[in-house]
Specification:
Layout: H1 3-10, H2 24-27, H3 30-39, E1 49-53, H4 58-71, E2 76-79, E3 91-94, H5 113-133, H6 141-155, E4 160-164, E5 181-184, H7 192-195, H8 199-206, E6 216-219, H9 224-237, E7 240-243, E8 249-253, E9 256-260, E10 265-269, H10 276-291, H11 301-310, E11 318-321, E12 325-328, H12 334-347, E13 353-357, H13 365-373, E14 378-381, E15 403-406, H14 410-420, E16 426-430, H15 433-461
Parallel strand pairs: 1-4, 1-5, 2-4, 5-6, 6-7, 12-16, 13-14, 13-16, 14-15
Antiparallel strand pairs: 2-3, 8-9, 9-10, 11-12
Length: 462
């Protein structure tokens, strides 16, 4: 099986990330992935893991943890979702030998095309046999890909696997793991149709990753309703809970920040990721790293500092260009939009802000638009190439009084923004990770083509 054939094969499985509405609790079954993994000798049981759930900041927190472990000399498996540009980004192995990041290749350690093709070919007979006889229904894309990640991590003999939940937690395919440490990042309203109408209901699904006595749980600051659910879950299971804001303290210090952890203090920390919310994510990640000490895994303070500073997580308040500024972010709910607005105001200086916005139709369109409206001078409404995308016309009425334009695709939105933006302006692209990823890919490809064309002209002229 070639890489192209493997990618096409994986696309044949139902992918709930591309479906806006579906019966979540009837469609997603933890028993199914457990049942299937048993047929391939339970590769996940060979792994020591860290498990992260939450609404905001799961990916950033996972990246911080992985980079700190890598800085300490560990070989780290990192499994995240969704992806920004290439679905191989979801499965990564970071180690001291990993090639450093470069422009357009910031997701270092991605599973290679040859490894993905080989493992897909290896997995295919077991998958097809299972889907024929399964009493829980056929496997989904996420379940197959999670199984493939477990096989890859086992094969690469990772020391620790860092797993981000795909959706929720309780029924998520990653929840077959029995982790050393769990983390719950900030919980807010998202995936209401699937997870519940209240913060308590959503928190209950997220806290479902807390399963066993003795596991260490690190929680970000939470609304009272969500915090109560997490605390109750820890009491019920006998897990040991530590909370940022109570047991772990984060203090702002200009462009740096300090963290008082469970065992040590970390003054004058610096990270590349912008926004106060990223400092909270970093504090949660430090708590997780310190929590590993209860499992006899001790990380040096210097590695914690270096790992935080080294962490890259593209698509999160990421600067693609300057003069004019082009910034992309995957904010896709009201709380994330608020955090993005705060980060933009604190970190950038600009004359006018051109907002390029596309939102998935199952998201809180009104809430996201309300948060971002007073940030923008001009709005370009668009859509990503996904069936989940809301038509840009549906967003038009949320920006009364603004200069409003509609671009039917991301490339059109990019070209329009480039034509409008002066050198002192900021173009902010957000509303969905689909939008951020597609814009990023289009922007970098176009820039490479222009640089290549300019170089050819220069050589010809000489």
């Amino acid at each position: 099986m070639s890489y192209r054939e493997a990618a096409a094969y994986l696309e044949t499985f139902i992918n709930y990330e591309k479906i806006p509405c579906y019966p979540y609790k009837r469609s997603v079954k933890l028993e199914r992935i457990r049942d299937f993994l048993a047929t391939i000798d339970n590769p996940h049981r060979a792994l020591r893991g860290i498990h992260i759930a939450g609404t905001k900041g799961k990916g950033s927190t996972s990246a911080f943890i992985a980079f700190m472990l890598r800085a300490s000399g560990y070989r780290v498996g990192l499994y995240t979702s969704p992806h920004l540009s290439d679905f191989r980004e979801r499965i990564r192995v970071l180690s001291a030998r990993t090639q450093p990041a470069s422009l357009g290749q910031e997701f270092e350690g991605m599973i290679t095309k040859s490894a993905l093709a080989r493992l897909s070919s290896q997995l295919k007979p077991a998958v097809e046999k299972y889907c024929r006889i399964s009493k829980y229904g056929p496997l989904s894309f996420f379940e197959v890909y999670t199984s493939l990640a477990f096989l890859y991590f086992k094969e690469r003999k990772v020391d620790i696997a860092v797993l981000e939940t795909g959706l929720g937690g309780r029924l998520d395919a990653t929840n077959v793991m029995d982790p050393l440490v769990c983390a719950i990042t900030p919980i807010s309203y998202e995936h209401i149709r699937q997870l519940g109408n209240t913060l308590a209901e959503i928190a209950k699904e997220k806290a479902g990753i807390i399963k066993s006595a003795g596991v260490i749980v690190i929680s970000a600051p939470q609304d009272k309703e969500a915090a109560s659910v997490i605390r109750r879950r820890c009491r019920q299971t006998g897990a040991q809970l530590f909370e940022v804001g109570r047991d772990i303290r984060c203090k702002e210090n200009g462009k740096a920040f300090s963290v008082k952890g469970l065992f040590n203090e970390y003054p004058h920390l610096k990270i590349k990721l912008l926004g106060v919310h990223q400092r909270i994510n970093a504090s949660v990640a430090i708590g997780v790293i310190e929590g590993l000490r209860y499992s006899c895994v001790k990380i040096r303070k210097g590695a914690i500092r270096k790992g935080l500073c080294d962490t890259l997580w593209p698509g999160r308040c990421e600067v693609l260009a300057k003069k004019p500024l082009f910034v992309i972010d995957g904010a896709q709910n009201m709380a994330s939009a608020w955090a993005l607005k705060k980060a933009v105001r604190e970190n950038f200086r600009y004359k006018n802000l051109i907002l390029v916005l596309g939102i998935s139709r199952d998201k809180d369109k009104a809430g996201i638009c309300r948060e971002l409206s007073n940030l923008a001078d001009t709005v370009i409404l668009t859509r990503a190439h996904t069936p989940r995308a809301a038509a840009p016309q549906q967003l038009y009425g949320y920006f009364v009084g603004k200069k409003r334009f509609i671009a039917e695709d991301i490339k059109g939105a990019m070209l329009l923004a480039e034509a409008m933006a002066g050198k002192d302006d900021l173009v902010l692209v957000t509303g969905s990770l689909f939008v951020a990823g597609e814009f990023r890919r289009c922007f970098l490809d176009t820039r490479k083509q222009r640089l290549s064309g300019a170089l050819k002209k220069k050589i010809y002229h000489v």
